[in-house]
Design brief:
The chain is mainly alpha-helical. It has a domain at 3-90. Helices cover 69% and strands 0% of the residues. The protein has 19 helices and no strands. The longest helix has 26 residues, at 3-28. It is globular, with a radius of gyration of 24 Å. Mean pLDDT is 85; it is low at 93-104 and 205-212.
């Protein structure tokens, strides 16, 4: 297999996976069948394209291959009139007739195909977490394991949640179609959640050799820009865009030449990209002027405190701690509590931060979360309690998901043991 074919299939997966799956779901109403047939189509491309050549329209080729696979499966299953009608709906149309794969009439006003599909998936009949998880799995192509890590759940638990969400859609007869423009706001929280988790998986991957998967974060930012322009009266859309831009502005400084992680306080701030920082501050201020603050705006304000500080020492940690306190009102999650503990520790000293971390540990909600252990280790190191810090670093190392994180924790562990 040539590198060109591999690259073409990879590019087609990024661009076309969601569309292929969405088309099959719309016609068959069967989520599992749609995903199975889409996977088969991409596998077929890997076998056929080296000999036949890369098609001029990869998306159309993949959609046709997936459709034909679905027809084969449905024919084998067909035991009655209803199944036969499904086969007929999927079969290629006669000349001059409308295809089941032509786009439906769209009254949403959403100008981007992928964003339309996200609004389609984020149906309010589902719990918010289920909307986000199902959209990430179906349209973004993230694995169940990746989604589980993003939600701090086991893979088995997340798989069950996805199955339940699909079953609810089927049993309730929820239509798979783009909502009209006046219904977009009720689906916005789910879409924002999808974009943020997609960005996070690209900006700080939960597993694998690469800490940064730039393609995912770049696509999330692109879609967030489209969304902010589409819905200027929704301040959280602007807040999310500002948050992404602020995080992404530091991307070049997060890893060294060897691909090892550099902590925020040690980053070379001359490598931070000034243009997105400036843009994000303007976007955030515009959103805040609407007088309807929300969790993405608060998180963007926290990121702005970091991005606009000339040095690590001049960071306004007291303000950041206050903002995390406000964020807890919107997102009462243990991860936010952990970030609040870090900010308190930086503002008031490591002993104050360690006290909050120990309270979190006692609560048990972050058991198995490597960043909790790494934070505990860092506070212990700063307090000079090196043997305890070494134990915590070692425990965090066992749980870290990416190579870059493991290398960073290994260095800290060695430094702590060496200073003991």
């Amino acid at each position: 297999m040539t590198a060109d074919v591999t690259a073409a299939v990879d590019a087609a997966f990024r661009e076309e996976w969601g569309r292929v799956v969405a088309t099959l779901i719309r016609v068959t109403g069967d989520w599992d069948l749609a995903e199975e047939c889409a996977q088969d189509a991409f596998a077929m491309a890997l076998r056929r394209w080296p000999a036949d050549g890369i098609p001029r329209r990869p998306g159309a080729w993949l959609t046709t291959a997936a459709r034909n696979r679905a027809i084969d499966v449905l024919r084998r299953r067909a035991v009655g009139a209803a199944k036969l009608r499904e086969v007929a709906a999927l079969s290629p149309p006669e000349s001059g007739s409308a295809s089941a794969f032509e786009p439906q009439t769209d009254h949403s006003g959403v100008p981007d195909d992928r964003l339309r599909l996200m609004f389609t998936c984020c149906h309010p009949a589902l719990a918010l977490e289920a909307r986000v998880a199902l959209t990430l799995r179906t349209l973004a192509g993230l694995t169940t394991a990746e989604i589980a890590r993003a939600f701090l759940a086991s893979e088995a638990t997340m798989a069950k949640r996805l199955v339940r969400a699909k079953q609810k859609i089927t049993k309730a007869g929820i239509p798979y179609r783009v909502p009209p423009a006046h219904l977009l706001p009720e689906r916005l929280p789910g879409v924002l959640g999808v974009l943020y988790l997609l960005f996070n998986e690209g900006y700080s991957a939960t597993a694998g050799a690469d800490l940064i998967r730039q393609g995912l974060s770049a696509e999330a930012i692109r879609l967030a820009r489209v969304l902010a322009r589409l819905m200027p009266s929704e301040p959280e859309a602007g807040g999310l865009l500002a948050l992404m831009l602020l995080h992404d502005s530091r991307r070049a400084a997060r890893l060294d030449a060897a691909g090892d992680l550099i902590t925020l306080e040690d980053q070379d701030r001359s490598l931070w990209n000034a243009a997105p920082i400036s843009e994000s501050v303007e976007v955030l201020e515009s959103s805040l002027r609407q007088g309807r603050p929300g969790p993405y705006q608060v998180q963007a304000a926290i990121a702005a405190c970091h991005a606009t500080a000339a040095t690590a020492a001049s960071t306004d940690w007291a303000q950041i701690a206050l903002l995390y306190g406000r964020l807890r009102e919107y997102l009462p999650s243990p991860v936010v509590e952990l970030n609040h503990a870090v900010a308190v520790g930086m503002a008031r000293g490591p002993a104050a931060g360690l006290l909050l971390v120990e309270e979190l540990e006692a609560g048990g909600k972050l058991t198995g979360y490597h960043l909790l252990l790494a934070t505990r280790a860092d506070f212990l190191r700063r307090l000079g309690r090196l043997p305890e810090a070494a134990v915590a670093y070692a425990a965090a190392l066992e749980l870290a998901g990416t190579d870059a994180e493991r290398r960073y924790l290994t260095r800290r562990l060695e430094e702590t043991r060496g200073a003991d």
